[in-house]
Each structure stands twice: as C-alpha cells, then as structure tokens.
Design brief:
The chain is of the alpha+beta class. The chain is built from eleven helices and six strands. Strands 1, 2, 3, 4, 5 and 6 form a six-stranded antiparallel β-sheet that branches. Helix 6 packs across helix 7. The protein is globular and about 45 Å long. 35% of the residues are buried. The N terminus is likely disordered. The chain binds ribavirin triphosphate and magnesium ion. Ribavirin triphosphate binds next to strand 6.
C-alpha cells in the first residue's frame, strides 16, 4: 500500500476522532510527552504518527486511542507498518554487569536506533526483585531468581522508539539462551537460562508497570535525538 494512501487514511482517522487535528500543536505535544513520562494510562504510552504533509514527521504524535479506525485498517494490511512510539523497561542483570557487557548491550539498542530515556545502576533488594518478578512467584525458580537479581548491580534503563517493546524482545532473544537465535543478545552472549544477562518488558502493560516500579517520572528524560530525523520520515 502506498505511503501516501496510508497517510491519507491515518490523517482521516485522526480528523474523525474526537476532533483531534492532524497538525497537533506544540502544547498538545508537550501534554502527550508528559503523559508518556508519567505512564499515567495505557493509551498515553502508545502513539500513532500522522505523517500526511509532515514537515517534521517526528513532531506529530497523536494518541493511539483516537486512531482505532486506522489501526483496524492497518491490522488488515500486513504490508503497513504500525507506527507506535513506545517505551520499554530493559535491565542488564548482575551477570551482564559483572561480565562487562554493559556497553555491548547498550550499543545494540543504540545501533538499532532506539533512544535511551533513563538509565541508572542499582542493587535491588530481594523484596524489590520479588515485586519485579511477581508474576513468577509460583514458579520453582522464583526464590533463586530473586536472590540472583538482588545479588549485585543492575543497569536499569528505559528505551524509546517505534515498536521498541516487541522488537526489544527480539533483540534480546528467547528466555533460554539454548533456544535464542545467534545474533540476539542472549544467543550471542550467554549460555544458561538462570544467567541470561538481560530483562525486557514483555508487553505494553508490563512496560508501564516496570517503568513505574524502577523509575520516578522525573528520571525519564524527554528530548529530541539528532538521529531521529534520519530514523523516522
Ligand atoms: P525476563 O523477564 O528476565 O526478561 O525473561 P523472560 O521474559 O524471557 O522470561 P520469564 O518467563 O519472564 O522468566 C524470567 C526469568 O526467570 C529466569 N528463569 N529461570 N530455571 C528456569 O527454568 C528459569 N526459567 C526462567 C530467567 O532468568 C528469566 O529471564
Ligand atoms: Mg519476563
């Protein structure tokens, strides 16, 4: 499907939705950015870009909730890329830190084109680790997992970009390094499932919850990266 056609569809959906104008104002953009920063609602974490007649395409992000008709249309056409600006939580676990893999892992996300919006080194308590992995509390490895995550420094990060939640998991690879494809972080850099060096949010809701658990809103930095104009049209 031609990009011009897609742009028309998206722009029309935008106009139809609750009076939202395709050419979003600087004020609205700032408000959306604040919503993303605060992670205050699922809708606020997911933006669809209206690119019709765009002078500076990256500057036009509109709430995904306003774009349902276009989203349905796009879902029916596999050739159309869903253009969602998202944030995901990524952590380099104590084994990745101790093995000197911080720059390697950060570099892979950077080279892909994702934007780092928060980073810190933290030694989580076991209680904090248990909160982070709460969904796994019934699993036999839960106690060991929490012991391990709290055993040393962890690099906690938030990365931003189109589709970063799902594609970030692709960069990371399958949970067990034995099953991870070569070329992925786990596939290339580790061997055992209990020492798989990196964590990544597994979906939009998890991303919001994990970012909120590990970071205060003011620790998330909203800025324009120089590379954006070469990454997004
Ligand atoms: P993560 O949350 O760390 O990104 O990993 P994941 O989504 O790929 O996998 P998940 O099922 O959420 O498991 C969380 C972590 O638990 C450890 N694990 N150990 N011994 C085992 O069989 C086993 N299974 C999972 C891994 O460190 C995994 O990353
Ligand atoms: Mg997981």
């Amino acid at each position: 499907m031609a990009r011009a056609r897609l742009a028309t569809v998206v722009a029309a959906a935008a106009r139809a939705a609750a009076g939202v104008r395709p050419a979003i104002s600087a004020e609205s953009r700032a408000a959306l950015a604040t919503a993303v920063r605060k992670g205050s609602s699922a809708a606020a974490t997911s933006f669809v870009r209206a690119s019709a007649g765009s002078q500076s395409g990256y500057s036009r992000w509109l709430p995904a909730a306003a774009f349902l008709p276009a989203a349905v249309y796009m879902a029916q056409d596999p050739t159309v890329e869903a253009a969602e600006l998202e944030r995901t939580f990524i952590a380099i676990k104590p084994d990745g830190v101790q093995r000197g893999l911080i720059s390697e892992i950060v570099g892979r996300f950077e080279r892909k084109g994702y934007k780092l919006v928060a980073i810190k080194l933290i030694v989580p308590t076991k209680e904090f680790a248990a909160q982070h992995y709460d969904d796994l509390k019934e699993r036999p490895f839960f106690n060991g997992l929490c012991d391990f995550l709290s055993s040393g420094p962890v690099v906690a990060m938030v990365w931003e970009g189109q589709g970063v939640i799902k594609y970030g998991r692709k960069l990371i690879g399958a949970t067990s390094p034995q099953a991870s494809e070569p070329g992925t972080i786990r596939g290339d850099l580790c061997v055992q499932v209990s020492r798989n060096i990196i964590h990544g949010s597994d979906g939009p809701e998890t991303a919001v919850a994990e970012i909120g658990l590990w970071f205060k809103p003011e620790e998330l930095i909203t800025y324009t990266h120089n590379a954006e104009k070469w990454l997004y049209e």
